[in-house]
Model the fold of this input.
Amino acid sequence: MTTIASTPQFALTDDQREVRAMVREFADRRIAPHAAEWDRGHTFDRSLYAELAELGLMGVCVPVELGGAGMDFLSYVLAVEELSRADAGVGVTLAVHTSASTLPILHWGTEEQQAEWVPPLARGERIGAFALTESGSGSDAGAMRSTALEGDDGSFRISGTKQWITNGGHAGSFITFARSEPGTTDASGVSCFLVAGDAPGLSVGRVEEKMGLNSSNTVDMVYDGVAVTARDLLGDRAKGFRIAMQTLDGGRITIAAQALGIAQAAFDLAAAYAAERHTFGKAIGSHQGVAFKLADMSVEIEAARALTYRAAALKLAGQPHTVEGAQAKLFASGVARRVTGEAIQVLGGYGYSKEFPAERYYRDAKITEIYEGTSEIQRLVIARKLLGLDVR
Ligand SMILES: Cc1cc2nc3c(=O)[nH]c(=O)nc-3n(C[C@H](O)[C@H](O)[C@H](O)COP(=O)(O)OP(=O)(O)OC[C@H]3O[C@@H](n4cnc5c(N)ncnc54)[C@H](O)[C@@H]3O)c2cc1C
Done:
C-alpha cells in the first residue's frame, strides 16, 4: 500500500494572494466582458497573449533567469482558477502552455534545451502545445501510431496525425510524442521531441468544433516527415511515455483549478440571481429548496478547492502528488458539472438562455471530466497507486 503524504499547510502567502487579486482584477476587466462573444465566435483574442505576458502569467512559475516571473506552482494554479472563472478557454490555454509545454522542458530539458526553448515560452513570444493524443489512442496513449524514423545521420523524421491539440493553431512549440522504436506497439517504444511550430512538414489539419470551451483552439496537427535532430529529443530515447504521464500528473492539478474556476463562476451567478429573482412574494433564495441547493454547491466547491490546493502544495514541496492530483481533478471536475447544472436550475428559464452565462459554464465544465485523463482514468490512477499496482 502506498502511504499518502501528509497534507502540507496551504494557507496562502502574501505573494500568492497578490497574484490571485491581480489575475482576478484582470479577468473581470479584460476577459469576462468578452467571454460570451468569444464563445459564440469560437475565437480567442490573440492580443491577450501579450497582455498575459505583460502580467508575467505566460511564465508565471518559470525561474526569472529563464524569462519567467519566478512565482511558485500554487500561484500558477490560482491564476488558472481566476482566468477560468472568467473564461475556461483562456484558463486552459495558459494551463496547456505552462504545465504541458513549458514545465516539461524545465524538468527534463538539458541546459541547452532550456536556454533555447523556455525563454520565448515564458515571455509569451511562443505559445506551447502538447501533442500526445491520436484518433486511435486517447486514454491508451501508448498505442500511438505516429512514428519517428531514425535516419543514418541520427536525425529523426516524425510522421502521423495528432488529434485534439489545444493551442495547436497558435503554437510555436510542440512537445511531441512519437514511436521511435520500430516493432513496438506499446508505451515502451515512445520518445518525446521538441518541435518548432514552423518546422517544415508540420501543419494544422482539421479545426475541431466543440460543444463548449470555444475560445480554446483545438486542432489536428499533421506531421509529414518533420525532421528533428537528436538534440531535440527531450529526456532519454524510448522514455517519452514516462514524460507524458508525469507531465499529466502536474497538469491535472491545473485542470482541477480550471473546474474550480468554472464552478465558482456558476455559484456566484446563481447566488446573485437567487437574491434578485422573486417568486411567491419573496426572493427565490429565501425558498428553502433554492437555499439548500446554494449551500450544497458552496460546500462542494470548498471541498474541491481544498483538494486542489493540497495537490498543488504537495507538488510545490517536491512531494509525490500523482494520487492527490488525480483525486483533485476527479472531484473538482464532477463538482463543476454538478454545480453548473444546479446553477441553470436556479436561474430557471434564464439558465437555459444564452442571455446568461450559466449554459456556457455547463458546456465548458463537461470537458474537465474528459481531458488530461477521463474521470475513469483518474479512478484507475488512484486505485493502482493506492493498491500498489502502478506499473510506471
Ligand atoms: C477539447 C479537448 C482538448 C484536448 N487537448 C489535448 C491536448 O492538448 N493534447 C493531447 O494530447 N490531447 C488532448 N485532448 C485529448 C484528451 O486528453 C482525450 O480525449 C482523453 O484522454 C480521452 O481519450 P479519448 O477521447 O480517445 O477517449 P477513449 O480513450 O476512447 O475513451 C472513451 C471512454 O472509455 C473510457 N475508458 C477508456 N479506457 C478505459 C479503462 N481502461 N477503464 C475504464 N474506462 C475506460 C473513457 O473513460 C471514456 O469514457 C483533448 C481533448 C479534448 C476533447
